[in-house]
Amino acid sequence: MKKILNDPKNFVPEMLDGLLKAHPDQLTYAGNDVHCIVRADAPVTGKVALATGGGSGHLPVFLGYVGKGMLDGCAVGDVFQSPSADQMLEVTRRIHGGRGVVYIYGNYGGDIMNFDMAAEMAGMEDIEVRTVLVKDDVVSNADPDKRRGVAGMVFAFKCAGAKADLGGSLDEVEAVARKALANLRTMGVALTPCIVPQVGKPTFTLGEGEMEMGMGIHGEPGVSRESLKPADEIADRMLAAIRSELTLSAGDPVAVMVNGLGATPPEELYIVYRKVHDILSADGVRTHRAYVGEYATSMEMAGCSLTVFKLDDELAALLDHPAHTPFFTQV
Amino acid sequence: MITPSQVVEALERVGRRLIALRDILNELDAAVGDGDLGLSMSKGGEALLEFVRTTPLNEGDDIGKYLASAGMAFNRAAPSTMGTLLATALMRMGKEAKGTTALDAGLLARMLTAADQGIQERGKAKPGDKTIVDALHPAAEAFASAIAADAALPAAAAAMLKAAEQGRDAAIALRSNVGRASWVGERTVNRVDPGTALCVEILKSLAE
Q1: Spacing of C-alpha A97 from chain mean position
Q2: Is the minimum CB–CB distance between B86 and chain A shorter than 8 Å?
Q3: What is the pLDDT of residues A238-271, one digit of tens each?
Q4: What CATH number should be reported for the domain holding residue B145?
């Protein structure tokens, strides 16, 4: 393991301390616990609040999207570990602006157990909570309800956050999050593993010259391990997997995200984007916005994911709405 | 009617019982799981004692909110699967009792039913899976039907305990279907499920 670290067990608190010191105008924390990250101006009175949470090791997911126009708070766990129900409840209490809270997070067992507990407890305190699970990783399970949540959650944060910013009700914000997620799919490929600091060893091994299609962002097994293919072929296959479920016709507007998993340089991501764009344009699909960069990572894993988000007028307008967070700015 | 001070005493009894059961539960768990059930339950028990020491419940206070907060305190100290399930039970009982300042027999029956349902939902287990549900579910049913038949509280509690013990014993022959114990499958047959044993002990200390 070769990482810039102090004591590995302080990895998460030291990272959070640095983040809070770098962005004091945008972020603070609740309940005397740096794992409970909230907007500096929380609670925003009269606005539906949005919260997420999950393990560390995926920046900018999850906490990087806390800020104006997106999320109000985020409970942060240890690397790849769920935060506690208590931490999620602290976040919920602090961000509640009087109109309810929507939780949007990935479909992982530990997170669900803890966030459901927090939601129940918030209900006891008369804070209404709605839960929307992200299940966009298209090849992670044949059953859509058992799929993992990955980079596509950023679009749900963006659209639901915009709806809340524009004064939407709890029902409306929840509905937008669900609509966005129903219209997007993600597929990924991994080239190298990642190392959890406290473990110190790679979570799996991939041979030199090998790639794994469909691998999860914690190293969960994918659909096929094979020799590394050219960028165009990878792009083509990821897009085909997505389009097997997301019907795109000529004239449809979409947003496209090519996301780096942590160790793949932006140059390579643009090579993948180029091919995706060309295929879509050849079919008359109109790219409304493109996002190329790191949005949801897995420590120092090399590889990328592709998310395609089919838009309508409402979703396009919400996507275009300004947002300003430490990791995501749209003007 | 169960008064606030009786609620506090019941939580104290459960807390003390969980601490006392540490070695027995560890041993039962070691046969089918990773052997730390007693450890996490004794931590949860200590948290309950600490909670009642530091959180007063006075006449007129909301018993439901108190129980739900006790559940959160328990889960903080015992974040294991069983810890989360028992915390869920406390929270669901609290939800059922929200806004009340004393508990009557009908409400107690609904609270126990809510605890049973909560554990089944959160743990994704049903009767027959060889889990805590195999003791809790028949106990909740027996208690509710005794109360519905106008039985006095001590008689209903006795029926509840008997059903829990029978459920625990009937589950011995089963094979574990969910949770960590299911990983060792066949090895769980003819062994007491630690969750059912735990459930009987908790119900006993509640009934005292």
Answers
A1: 24
A2: no
A3: 999 999 999 999 999 999 999 999 999 999 999 9
A4: 1.25.40.340
Structure-block tokens of residue A302: 């090399």
Whether B65 has its CB under 8 Å from any CB of chain A: the answer is yes
Beta pairing partners, A225 = A212
What interface predicted TM-score (ipTM) does this complex get?
A: 0.74
Query: At what angle are helices A313-320 and A170-182 packed, to 10 degrees?
Result: 100
Output the CA torsion sign for A23, A24, A28, A34: positive
Which chain B residue has its CA at the smallest distance from A119's CA?
B91
**Domains in chain A: boundaries:** 8-182, 184-320
pLDDT of B129-171, one tens digit each? 999 999 999 999 999 999 999 999 999 999 999 999 999 999 9
Q: Is A218 one of the catalytic residues?
A: yes
Whether the CB of A84 is below 8 Å from some CB of chain B: the reply is yes
Residues of A in contact with B82 (CB under 8 A): none
What are A27-53's pLDDT values in tens digits? 999 999 999 999 999 999 999 999 999
- What is the CATH architecture of A184-320? 2-Layer Sandwich (3.30)
Q: pTM (2 decimals)?
A: 0.88
Task: Verify whether the Cβ–Cβ distance A117 to B84 is below 8 Å.
Answer: yes
Three-state secondary structure call for residue A137: strand
A117, A123, A124 member nearest B87 (Cβ): A117
Q: What's the CATH number for A8-182?
A: 3.40.50.10440
